[in-house]
Amino acid sequence: MAENRASISLLGPLGLNTIPSARMDSTGTIRAGVSTADPYAHMYLSVQPANFLNITLRQTAEVSGLNDDAKRLYPGIDLKFRFLEEGKYNPEVSVGIMSALGHKRMAGEYLALTKRYNNFEFTGGLGWGRYGSSGTFDNPLNLLGNHFDSHRTLDGEMPNGPEDWFTGDQVGLFGGIEYFTPLKGLSLKADWGADRYIAEKTSFDFDAPDPWSLGVHYTPAAWVDMGVGVLGGDKVMATLSFQSPLSKWPGRRNQNVEPSPMRRERSDLTSPSKMAYDAARHGSMILYDIRRSLNAVWTKLDIDPGDSLPQQLGRAARNMSNHAGTDIEELLITPESVGLNGPTIRLMRRDMEQALIRHQGSPQEIWRNTILNAPIPPEFDGQVVDVDHFGFGARERALPRLRFILDTQTSLSEEDEGILYRTSFIVDGLHQLSRHWVVGGGLRLNGPDNLDKIATLRPAAFFPVRSDVAKFADKTVSVDRLYNAYLRSFGDGEWHLMAAGGYMEEMYAGFGGEALYRPFGKTYAVGAELWQTFRRNPDSNFALALSGDHVLSGHLKAWYEIPQTDLTVDIRAGRYLGEDWGGTLSLTKSMQNGVKFEVFATATDNADFDLFGGTTHLYSGLKMTLPLGNVPVLPNGSQIRLGAAPLGHDIGQSLDSPLPLYEMTDPLSYRAITQHWNEVTE
User: Which residues pair with 510 in a beta bridge?
Assistant: First the structure.
């Protein structure tokens, strides 16, 4: 039975019946839910990328009944920030913004305080906009300037934005209590809200309920919440949500190759060819360019980006040690991935022996004497050891790296069509022709979608960027990618270069490249990309023909890894595929089990038309990748991709590069090594 914990409120954020609380989901949780109460039905998808931040994509429909079509749709992006966690004496404090970007009808802000006492949880707070339309007293933020005292429009076709946040001449008070009964998972809720349904009364003479509510909530299992309640004695509400902590996603690899056992006695001779042979035969690893000196062996290791680097380092060290002779003490390994290399890492042979043979060591003790970004001793120069066909030549003759991708794109942010979706199945491959040259390609099999009404509901663009997505989705099979690329690293693996040309993604062909500076051990990176793109014709066979439309796009980029977290902030600015100029801000969470999700927002100088006569300069959403390594029949690297962003929009669109350098170098980074270091002995 599930433990008692916070659940969703009517509009989506965690809370009581109609009011939000200060509570947050655990970091890494994804939640999907629906709720209803006259005159709306709400659907939302939320992610908790960090302890202090929740982001929700919501679609609200004005409906007369659950079986009726929506009269109007009110999409929005909701944000919630935790400023103070609950302590022994202090309450938890959070600030939320409903429709931070979205329609004004559901827009509102709140400051919520929540405190637990035994089996009771108390919540109170201040509301602005929709959450404060009761107008209990003057806006306290008026003291900070006249901006906050400006008149607040609670409805209209212009989108809500930062200029509307926390404004209005008055605010409302709300509060409530939740009692967690002795039956685990069952709780009772009562609250008093500050929403007086001003917009609804003005628009269609809505009979608003009294501000009080009573409800019951039940959590039969950790992954599902449900609740029902009564609003003001004459209206009924219901909520249902499904959630899961992504940290429990079942792993990234589909096979568990046993590592080579480490020999108890050191061999008499140093044999690089046997190192490479055993690594390839017993560990499916490629060691090449092996060199030796009086007390050290240095090799290059072709890594699998789907597995952790420390585990591969540890397994390579076993094979090196088994054939390193009696006097070798230092094992130096330079990891490489698709032509790019990371820093050279020095492991002490005796530390590995203590941990793996005598069981008197640990990953932490190995770490103590490990040197990251170790210098290469000059005595290695010119001493390349011939390892026959067990070295780099094995990679040249290897089969392409294949992966299967289930791609699902949805949108909760459409005012004309509501929820849009499309699904595709992609077979993607990458083959290394030489150390730095690769060829890649893929086929896309399109599945179900509901994009057919986009062309009839929206004006056709003269030069579409992605607004003709329905035509691409209608093709049963198309070439997803087909390209050739050159990749190389410089300066001890700090500078990286990629140049590519061909069919780069589903809708565009072209040529161009990217440069990245990512100093090892630092929390920042900078880069730039430039692409000459040509529009693919969706009406041609396999979408291989080009339409003649072409555009030069490019961006300056910067990344920052937030210390002590698995969060990365990505900022880019430049020219997009629609010839619009602007910038993108994104936050990415990369979890140890391979799950990754990203939330992003793009603002440009061009605007998209919407059905109700408004325009928007913003394009935002979230992306999520779930590895399918737990499915034995699928190759390593297979994954599920989920996207939730507006479909068929032309502003803020970038080329979907098949070889993004920051992602490709991530397995070689200092953060990836330290986060997975405990796997060095696995």
Answer: 502, 533
* Rounded CA separation 459/280 (Å): 58
CA distance 456 to 104: 26
Number of Cβ within 10 Å of residue 255's Cβ equals: 9
Q: Hunting for tokens 């072209």 — which residue is that? A: 510
Same domain, 240 and 325: no
User: Who's near 568: CB < 8 A, 6+ residues apart?
Assistant: 559, 560, 561, 562, 587, 588, 589, 590
**CA–CA gap between residue 679 and residue 682 (Å, rounded):** 5
Whichever domain contains 549, its CATH number is: 2.40.160
Residue 199 lies in a domain: yes
Q: Identify the three-state secondary structure at position 632.
A: coil
Measure the CA–CA gap between 198 and 208, rounded to whole angstroms. 9
Overall number of domains in the chain: 3
When pLDDT is averaged across residues 408-429 and rounded to a whole number, the result is 83
Question: What is the sign, positive or negative, of the torsion defined by CA atoms of 601, 603, 607, 613?
Answer: positive
Contact call for residues 331 and 296 (beta carbons, < 8 A): yes
Please say whether the beta carbons of 629 and 306 come within 8 A: yes
Neighbours of 216 (CB within 10 A): 15
Q: Which helix (H) or strand (E) holds 665?
A: helix 661-665
**pLDDT the model gives residue 396:** 46
Backbone angles phi, psi at 49, to 5 degrees: -70, -25
For the chain, the first-to-last Cα distance in angstroms comes to: 34
Which pair of tokens denotes residue 640? Answer: 């599920």
pLDDT over 70 (residue 46) = yes
**What predicted TM-score, i.e. pTM, was given to this entire model?**
0.86
| Of 376, 395, 414, the domain-final residue | 395
pLDDT, greater one: 463 or 83:
83
Strand segments, DSSP code E, in 145-295 are 170-180, 186-192, 212-221, 224-231, 235-245, 286-292
How would DSSP label each residue in 408-422? Answer: EEEEEEETTTEEEEE
- Tokens, residue 209: 């309920």
Domain range holding 374?
272-395
Measuring CA to CA, which residue among 185, 327, 326 is closest to residue 268? 326
Cis bond leading into 39, ω under 30°?
A: yes
Highest mean predicted confidence (pLDDT) among 268-277, 569-578, 600-609: 569-578
- Cα 104 from chain centroid (whole Å): 27
Cβ proximity of 80 and 94 under 8 Å: yes
Contact 551, 591 (CB under 8 A): no
The answer to whether residue 323 sits within a structural domain is yes
Query: Residue 381: helix, strand or coil by DSSP?
Result: coil
CA distance 312 to 174: 55
pLDDT in tens, 484-523: 999 999 988 899 999 999 999 999 999 999 999 999 989 9
- Among 53, 105, 58, which Cα is nearest to 79's? 53
What is the mean pLDDT of the segment spanning 396-409? Answer: 78
- SS3 for 637-655 is CCEEEEEECCCCCCCCCCC
CA–CA distance, 340 with 336 (Å, rounded to integer): 5
Is 371 exposed, middle or buried (CB count within 10 Å of its CB: 0-12, 13-18, 19+)? Answer: middle
- Token digits for 482? 């087909």
